Amino acid sequence: MEISTQGSSFKNFFSGRKGQNLGIVRSMNYEIPGIFRLESGKTLSHVRIEYEMYGKMNTDKSNVILVCHALTGDAHAAGFHADDKKPGWWNIVIGPNKAFDTEKYCIVCSNIIGGCKGSTGPSSINPETGKPYGISFPVITIADMVNAQKKLVEYLGIKQLFAVAGGSMGGMQVLQWTVSYPEMIKKAIAIATTASSTPQQIAFGAIGRKAITDDPKWNKGNYYGKEIPAQGLSLARMIGHITYLSDASMQKKFGRDPQTETGLTTSKTVSETSSEIFPDSASYFQVESYLNHQGSTFTKRFDANSYLYITKAVDFFDLSKNGSLIEGLSGITAKYLVISITSDWLYPPYQSQEIVSALTANGIDAKYEEVRSQYGHDAFLLEEGQLNYIIRSFLSQVLVSDIMYQNFYSVSRNETIENASTLMVKKKVNHLPVVSEDGKLEGIVTSWDITKAVACKITELDEIITRDVKYVFSGDKIETASSIMEDYLISALPVIDSENRVIGMVTSESISALIGRFG
After folding, report:
1. What is the largest CA-CA distance in the chain?
2. pLDDT given at position 353
3. Which among 191, 222, 359, 478 counts the fewest CB atoms within 10 Å?
4. Model pLDDT, residue 272
5. Dihedral class, residue 439 (left if φ above 0, else alpha if ψ from -120 to 50, else beta)
6. Could you give the CA distance from residue 416 to residue 427 in angstroms, rounded to a whole number?
7. What is the pLDDT of residue 8?
8. pLDDT at residue 455, rounded to an integer
């Protein structure tokens, strides 16, 4: 997409070159000063947030995209740590020439509070006791996670995020961000998620938590420095992992194939093999071995108490208000991209469609896309081609509303030239839309008009107003505004709504700034 204005031209937002990896990256941390208050009313002190950044912020820090991780994710979303064998969890879409292009955007990803990968959670030391919190750690919610992220964003000096994006529980954080801090988000990308946890989703979480708490080694959460509840945590992960897959993906990956190391074949009957496989001390099917491996490796990288707290936060998540999702999402102003996965049965497409319906009912610009995949819920971590195409298209589409000034100044046609001139000088603007009492566009006056009026000794503003005004709508593409400015040799346009009311201004300077941001 190319746009030109007054001699400047846009480069293509995406060059079509193959995406590249980031190379070695590093984690950083930030401690929230003072007391951090949770939704429950409880407080935490010395709250630490682990985070990573990819790409560089532009001068006004308007190119920042916050990426939110899923249930057992962390801040390491892309690139490689020095000792990594695999890259960060969303490396397929973060990096040069990928959807989240680090040559254009600055990507920030932080580990949630309640986690165990650098941010404050149950395994952290309680500053009041000098011992790990354990289950004395207060209950947390998705909103608490977002509030902590906001503290980090403020610390980084970011006044408004260009976008916030995430899948699964990361998608819940995206939704919460746009509800809690609508003025801070321009674009939102929620993938394979829901606006409220269903009874089935809560049930899976409950079983996983019971597997942990029934493990004797859990010891009421006091296992730090002792043997961890590995059996319970492993089982919880196995249960959860099943929901991330689909029947088709499991059929394709495993079928009914037995483990070759068992020495058993599917040609044997149950009676012939029962003495060899019962009691079930060994995995007979490949899918059993796979789940055992997933459970075992998970215990080496995740804390059991964190799993309890985070899954409970997911269970509590519900953005409906007075039983209405439409009411719950009514304050959102961000443009939305909602993506579902055709084979996802943990967060099936109908839940994404419900989000889009509620957004649309509130007049919010919301786009719905489906990723066609057999991978199930995990497709948001695997479908590189489809995700890059969909997300890239959404981020690269720049509309007038993305760059217009909403805090503009206007005058009435009964105003004096002296007052209009004074306003222009004080507010450092060159264009003033002339509006009626109900805010409708009646004309425009420029600093050049004022200069001519003074030379001709004209005192009334009504005599110099340009009434044949060129304008744009907030939903117009930026190319439209650029073309009008070029064709009519003007440097600013009023932005109006469907009732001819002025809602903003777009200028050649704002378009030039856009070139600097993405060019």
Report:
1. 109
2. 98
3. 222
4. 52
5. left
6. 17
7. 33
8. 86
Q: Which residues of the chain have pLDDT under 50?
A: 1-16, 262-267, 517-519
Query: Which pLDDT value is given to residue 454?
Result: 85
Give the catalytic positions in this structure.
168, 344, 377
Q: Which 8-state DSSP code applies to residue 257?
A: P
Nearest Cα to 31, choosing from 51, 50, 48?
A: 48
What pLDDT was estimated at residue 280? 55
Considering just the CA atoms, what is the radius of gyration of the chain in Å? 28
DSSP-assigned letters across all residues of 104-118? T-EEEEEPPTT-SSS
Query: pLDDT value at position 299?
Result: 96
pTM of full prediction above 0.70: yes
Contact call for residues 347 and 244 (beta carbons, < 8 A):
no
Cα–Cα distance, 515 to 120 (Å, whole number)? 39
Residue 508 CB neighbour total at 10 angstroms: 18
102: left (phi over 0), alpha (psi -120 to 50) or beta: alpha
H or E segment and range at residue 238: helix 230-244
Closest to 469 (Cα-Cα) out of 432, 508, 416, 426: 432
Rounded Cα distance between 439 and 326, Å, is 28
d(CA 169, CA 235): 20
Neighbours of 219 (CB within 10 A): 14
